[in-house]
Batch of 2 targets.
Target 1
Amino acid sequence: MTTLAQSIRASAYQLLGDWQLPWAVHMHRRGQLAQARRVYRRILARTPRHFSVLQLMGLLELKRMRYGRALQWLERAREIKPEDLILLGHLGCAYLGQRRFVEAEHWIQKARALRPDDMSICINLGQVYLHAGRLDEALACFQEAQGLAPHRPEPLAAEGWALRDMRRIDEATQIFRDLIARFPGQGQWPTDLLPLLVMSGKHPEVFALLRERGMAAHFDGLIPPPDRRLRAFGKPRWQPGVPLGGLTLLVHTEAGFGDALQGLRMALVMADRGAQVVLEVWPALQRLLHALDTRITVVARGSSLPPYDLHVDLEHLPFLLEMAPDQMPPPPPLVLPAPGVAAWAARLGQRDGRLRVGFACTGNPRHGRDMDRSMRLAHFLNAMPQGVDLVCLQRVIRPQDTGAFALRPEVRVFGEQLADFADTAALIENLDLVISVDTGVAHLAASLGKPTWIMVSYIPDPRWMLDRDDSPWYPSVRLYRQGPDTRWGPVLKRVAADVSARAQVPRALLEGHSTEAMAVTMSATEAQSCQ
């Protein structure tokens, strides 16, 4: 039997927990998740079945994109209140994060049955369909949500997202323009609009929008940082018009490897403007770039920085300087030490006359659109013609792809021998051609001037724009785009045909990537496509 003292103590703990909870929720909303978690755990230690705190722990893990842990907390909360409307929606979001679309739809449909006229639930269901590729159903949900709340901006924005994924880019663009005009100062509509404008090549409108709305607030829509957390610096951010003569400028990368490689040319632009540049890059890039330019000091992110006067994000510079892609300088030459290139030539062995092709089928699994831009290794290897010397440029092979090499046991795989991008660059120098999905390997090969074929998803990264098969960023790039079916099979069929045609080009013409070799390759490709 519970004593009076025990009852009083339990009541006191409950009061203490309830008093601390608003403060913890405040920390949670501010993104101070560690502080919030400590309080939540203290409350649960005394009240293990505290429904609100169990759900808050689930939300905290959702924010960290740890969906499995989120489900554990939310399922504990569901044992207490199995029909709680908000909880059902959170369960749907957790399953959606795991791309378990059937379960996500199940829980959100349960919430919808409880409240069929709720706009937010309707939008959440549309989000499930959107991520599952059921675009017509997603669009119908978002339009239904507009009927439920015709004066709210959220359903219209959701319709814009669906139209974007249907590649109805002009319609999506107009929706976000309208949202900016109708709801000034609300939402992240410029962040949604900017990539669409870049994709469509409407750079003057991009620059005007950034000038009008403020640069830093909307850059994440163009180039999101990989961990979604931009850093704070103790020195002012450089702004256009501020002279750089005699100043040290920290140019730091906040995005992925490919973005950093693409942006290298902008570090030289700032050096040309008089700055002594400290270029901070990811450690895997430092050895490759250490001799980029005498006016540039390259340091690895995470190491101590030399003194500097101003700082700027590398990937933001084209927008700050209002330079469209066709106004950009070419990629800077990357100097590769001859011994490193020779060492990789020795690993590959003597040439046997075959076309030597490097490939990468996957990128960073944490990328927001990884499922769209990566492909299964087996699909690629199965499509490639025989008689080609295939070299894998991926340092990491995903578990689901490890068995694919049984299809082509002759493929060279170096894995962790590729210690960093300097090793990968030296290996690429010994190849004739690189074929890659949209990832850092593609940018590296293109920066080296190597013929590079990039396989691009139907909704491309904005930098590749729409419909063209070349890129103003890199003269040596050729783009192979998915069609509306978003399947890689037709893309691989075209790539394989062109590899076969290129493999017929005499070796002497391929060496040096001469214009004559390119012409012969193109004519052979065109002849094959007409058969």
Note: DSSP finds 23 helices and ten strands in the chain.
Target 2
Amino acid sequence: MFKLLGAMVVMLVCTFTAAQQPAGMASVDTTAPDQFHAVLLPPLAGADATDLAERFAIHQARTGSLVLLADQSDDIFLQSPGNIPPHEIVYGHYAVLQKILQQRELLFWQIPLWTVCVNLMSALVLFLVSLKQSDLPLFRLLLAIALTGNFYFLPQLAPDSFPFMLVPPGIMIWVYLLYRLMQDTKRLQSDAPDRASQFLGYAVKLLLALFLVDCVFIALDLNLPNHPGMTPQLVPLGQLFGITAALYFLVSRHAETGLELENLNVSLDQRVKLASAELQERYAQLKQDALDTASMKERKNIYQSIHEDLGDKLLQLIYSATVPETADLARSALAELRDSRNLLPDQHRPLEDLLADARNEIQIRCDQAGLMLTWQQLYPEQTVLLSARQCSALSRTLREAISNLLKHAHAKSASVSIDILSDSVLVYRVQDDGSGMVSITRPGRGLLNMQNRIRELGGSLTISAAKSGGTVLEFRFPLSTSEVRGTEVKGTEVRGTKTTQLSSAVSTMVTKEPS
């Protein structure tokens, strides 16, 4: 705001200073006989111009006529020459009046003419730009302002050929367009503040303020000193300043756009390089994955062939063995081989299927040893998937526990019970009615293997004596919540299953009476 007021004060001071008489010539001595005198009249036309041209030396200009007087007696005649108003006549020395006429030409003819020319050139440039870029509303607004701003000067520059009725509407349209441009510059400054938009906003505000000052001068009929009948006009100077601000704004925006495009091209090149490198890396990874897949498939085929050969040889060894221990060892090796074949690292298996195979194997071994087997599944009905490690640990610990029972317990019956606790922990017990276990000072390889397998799953193995005699091996390890399907898990509590558990008598089967 202070910048706007300062610019207005400077322009006012310059205008009134230029309109003053030159220094040392403020007073005119019309009584000195040795000096030429003259009068400065408004522009003359018709009979007045012809009459004066015949009697005196006259210099005709756009904004006035300078008449050289022969002597002082002509002053009385020129006080009312024809239709010339008396108050528009200025007396003085010829040199002084000539300088005043030059000032009048500059202020009231040349500056408005320059402003009109600059407006038309700016309008032509904006029009040519808008032909190529039709989606630039700011360019169209500046074009309209450049064209309508000429309504302010055309009546003065061409009073006879320009209809005066078009002046007030044209000026009102120009003021309205300036107001819209001021609103647009405010929005531009709020979105992306810069000096160019601020400069353009100050120029528009200055133009509107100068327009109001000119309206006040016209309403009060103010005249400049030594320029009777000539009302000062500040809008032409303001329009030159505004055109400079608009050009600065457009050039600045063009430069910023070019810089942004250059930065965008650099950034785009970097992105293309990064994307190309990423694509090459992905292609190399896919190629390596394809090779790994082919290698894995070939290994799987070889793995399957080796398992089939070993399985056939172990079966031959079982049927041809003459010693029971050899047959048991071959049978155990065959079971281990089947487990390693059926359980891949990324494979999951239902608990029901695994227990069915384990029960079938344990049943056969108990039948051969003459033991009565009791099998109990106490957990609620739900679908449980076990990972390969869990399946391996469950089947191998059960197999190892039954092997120890058959070798060392001297039992007549055995029982296996499986349960899933409410905190998603799988518990299974192997119990016999044999001679029991004495204090263990150094556990054997079988117990150590079972303990290690359970600990790898985060579980535990507990060995205790049964109340009715014999030994109880209790295994437990946690089930992750993702391995319990068909249930809703909240914390460590499993919901959504049947709440009535099977009694210990359910699924109890006596397979064979002791011999």
Note: The longest strand covers residues 413-420.
